[in-house]
Design brief:
The protein is of the alpha+beta class. It is built from 20 helices and 21 strands. Strand 6 and strand 7 form a beta hairpin. The longest helix is centred in the middle third of the chain and has 17 residues.
Length: 575
């Protein structure tokens, strides 16, 4: 496919905010695409060169992109900067200066050139990157330059979420009923491009044969909630009950001596945990294995586990070794997904757990998570109280006969975080979709409150649930303004459903954890909005900590969870 043809589809996608229209546009694109291009088309449309777990990023700032435009068009840098200040969009700026008709480059060629930019590193890499991009601009038309520029600095923003791609792939095959099978394959490899390429090369038979593979993160299973231990036993009967750790979820992949680790949002985190890497080499007996668990910083003197805010410091790129000495880690393994060539996800939790214990040698870093089996709700309550007293988040109960539900949220796993007196004791993760400038003392920061939304996976949209104006320090408000302005939009994002008009709309990228007094019904918000136009809202929400860097936008709580929590809250009030 010619890259210019792909750009024409991008223009159509950019011009619509209607989800059904977006499905139709994408399905037409996928019908036109050949197997050799489909993966690249999907990656480019989602603003990436490869899925996040590969860690391949362009690594170009606005400043260097301006230089590339300047070099390619023999225009003074100052002139490009002045135009950018007027347009506020480096895509439109590039479009104005790149005047050639282009060389009719293919999608494959443009993708390869952008990959060369991303893979350039080391001494003199900035000059090389600018040179590669400048050469690419010389070979494309103004319209192509517009979208290449936006892609390079992460501002493509076509609103193409994973569920939208899956729906469009099924539509392109002429049968929406194919989506669950496509989604199953995606849940096992976290690579939409690979799923689409397999579909075009091998058909649905190839997709059905999809299996777990080491090095490709499995999309993580998630918990449902229930308000009491009685409800848990009533729902699933005898259960495995584990401590719920307030740490960093880590999926660990071992292929002999090659070790990789992935976060909840499927990014590579291997560099963050050198001590876990060493422990895996020395104390995990299997040759190939995928294990899931939780990493927590702890106090070596007392054995006390530190809260998430301490562990998250490992996100930094430098000084990890020093941090590892100051705040060493424990890794609590709680599930086994693959071992020595065998996919363990279809097996029962009980079977997975028993095999997990056998492959971990005793060591100071990795150990199986705390667990006991019971059908007695009083034992769960007692253990829950003990877990809270030790600074843990609560407990998770797991159905003994359940397979591992990759990418799923169901009652195979149930978390208990107590709500009482009608108050909302649990925390909620919301995605920031906009902000309000603020009045009075807040006016000086230029940001007074965030507009928070929860995720609707069926519609692949974010629906508003609260304005968050407290819980942040003055420094954090100033920091938030700076971070959010980098992803600000001229209009509401196509994946955002809001009645409220934010002063500044932003790309739905960052998640923040909040607590609130309770969930109420409200005509001001769109989460769970009924025919009468009444949705759900958080009453007196306040932030807990800063941005959740371990979560992507789709990891925000779902609309369904908000409604379920509201129903639980009502029961507690009545009781």
């Amino acid at each position: 496919m010619k890259f210019l043809r792909l750009v024409e589809y991008f223009e159509k996608l950019e011009a619509t905010t209607k989800r059904l229209e977006m499905f139709d546009i994408l399905s037409e694109l996928f019908k036109e695409a050949k197997a050799d291009d489909i993966d690249k088309i999907i990656y480019l449309g989602q603003g990436q060169l490869l899925p996040p777990f590969h860690g391949l990023e362009i690594g170009m700032s606005e400043k260097y992109l301006i230089r590339a435009i300047s070099d390619a068009t023999d225009t003074a840098t100052r002139k490009v900067e002045e135009t950018f200040q007027k347009t506020g969009d480096l895509g439109e700026t590039a479009e104005e200066f790149v005047k050639g008709k282009g060389q009719n480059l293919t999608v494959k060629k443009v993708y390869e050139e952008l990959t060369d930019v991303a893979m350039t590193s080391g001494a003199g890499s900035v000059e090389k990157k600018v040179g590669f991009l400048s050469n690419l601009f010389k070979g494309v038309s103004s319209k192509e330059a517009k979208y290449i520029s936006r892609f390079v600095i992460g501002r493509l923003r076509l609103g193409i979420g994973d569920p939208t791609v899956l729906e469009a792939l099924a539509l392109a095959q002429g049968d929406r009923a194919l989506r669950p099978e496509l989604e199953r394959a995606y849940n096992l490899c976290s690579d939409l491009g690979l799923v689409a390429k397999t579909l075009l090369e091998k058909g649905m038979e190839g997709v059905k044969k999809f299996h777990v593979r080491v090095g490709y993160p499995i999309r993580m299973a998630l918990c449902e909630r229930l308000p009491s231990s009685e409800d848990i036993i009533e729902k699933i009967g005898k259960a495995a009950v584990e401590a719920k750790y307030d740490g960093f979820r880590v999926q660990l992949h071992k292929d002999k001596n090659h070790i990789e680790m992935f976060s909840r949002n499927l990014e590579s985190t291997t560099h963050m945990f050198p001590e876990i890497k060493e422990a895996v080499k020395n104390f995990i007996t299997a040759d190939t294995v995928i294990i899931e668990g939780e990493a927590l910083a702890y106090n070596e003197s007392t054995g006390e586990l530190f809260p998430f805010q301490v562990t998250i410091q490992r996100k930094r790129k430098h000084g990890i070794e020093e941090l590892a000495k100051e705040y060493p880690l424990r890794y609590f393994a709680f599930d086994l997904l693959y071992v020595n060539g065998e996919d363990y996800t279809p097996k029962s939790f009980k079977e997975r757990r028993e095999r997990l214990k056998k492959i971990i040698k005793k060591n100071p870093v990795i150990e199986p998570s705390e667990l006991f089996i019971t059908d007695n709700h009083e034992e769960i309550t007692k253990y829950f109280d003990d877990a809270i007293a030790r600074g843990l988040e609560g407990v998770v109960a797991k159905r003994l006969d359940a397979p591992y539900a990759a990418g799923g949220r169901n009652f195979n796993w149930i978390k208990l975080k107590r709500s009482y007196r009608g108050e909302l004791a649990d925390t909620i993760d919301v995605c920031i979709v906009g902000y309000f400038r603020g009045r009075g003392a807040r006016a000086e920061f230029g940001l007074g409150a965030l507009l928070g939304a929860v995720y609707d996976p069926k519609a692949d949209t974010f629906k508003t649930v609260s304005k968050i104006g407290s819980g942040f320090t003055e420094d954090e408000f100033a920091q938030l303004k700076k971070i959010l302005d980098e992803i600000s939009l001229k209009h509401k994002h196509s994946r955002v459903d809001s009645i409220m008009e934010a002063d500044v709309w932003v790309e739905p990228r960052y998640v923040v954890t909040v607590t609130a007094d309770e969930i109420t019904r409200s005509p001001s918000h769109t989460a769970g909005r009924d025919k009468e136009g009444i949705g759900y809202a958080l009453r007196f929400p306040r932030a807990v900590g800063f941005l959740r860097e371990d979560k992507k936008s789709e990891d925000a709580n779902s609309v369904k969870e908000i409604i379920d929590m509201f129903e639980m809250q009502k029961k507690v009030k009545v009781g």
